[in-house]
Amino acid sequence: MPRYLVAIHHPDDYDPAVSEDEAMHRAIDALNDEMIAAGIRLFVGGLHRAGTAKSLRADADGNVSVSDGPHLKTREHVGGLWVLEADGMDEALAWGRKAAIACRAPVEVRAFH
């Protein structure tokens, strides 16, 4: 069965203490329970703010440098994700719609190779 990434996007300055409330947590917990009951959830995880990331780059000689912060310089970053096993993109999108509502944030759905 195909696997899909359902990624939640947060703005650079996202602060869970300010942006998340108990109702949102209950909605996400309910969505997780629904995914488990449907047998489609393989993995779920939330990420720390993008500013806490470390970026690694290899040069032509194989030396790897490490720098602070995300690799991509954007205004939004992945804040959390699910890996789902679904019958197809339409089913994955249906779960993505539920995620967008529960998380109150933009969601990206992508198939794995």
* Strand proportion: 35-45%
Give the helix proportion (percent range).
Answer: 25-40%
Largest sheet: 4 strands, antiparallel
Tally the beta strands: 6
Low-confidence region ranges? none
* CATH class category name: Alpha Beta
What topology, given as strand order, has the largest sheet? 2-5-1-6
Q: Please give the CATH architecture.
A: 2-Layer Sandwich
Structural domains: how many? 1
Average pLDDT reading: 95
CA gyration radius, whole angstroms:
16 Å
Shape annotation: globular
Number of helices: 3
Summarize the topology.
Layout (H helix, E strand, L loop, with lengths): L2 E9 L4 H4 L2 H17 L2 E6 L7 E5 L5 E5 L7 E10 L3 H15 L3 E5 L2
Antiparallel strand pairs: 1-5, 1-6, 2-5, 3-4
Offer a concise description of the structure:
The protein has 113 residues and is an alpha+beta fold.
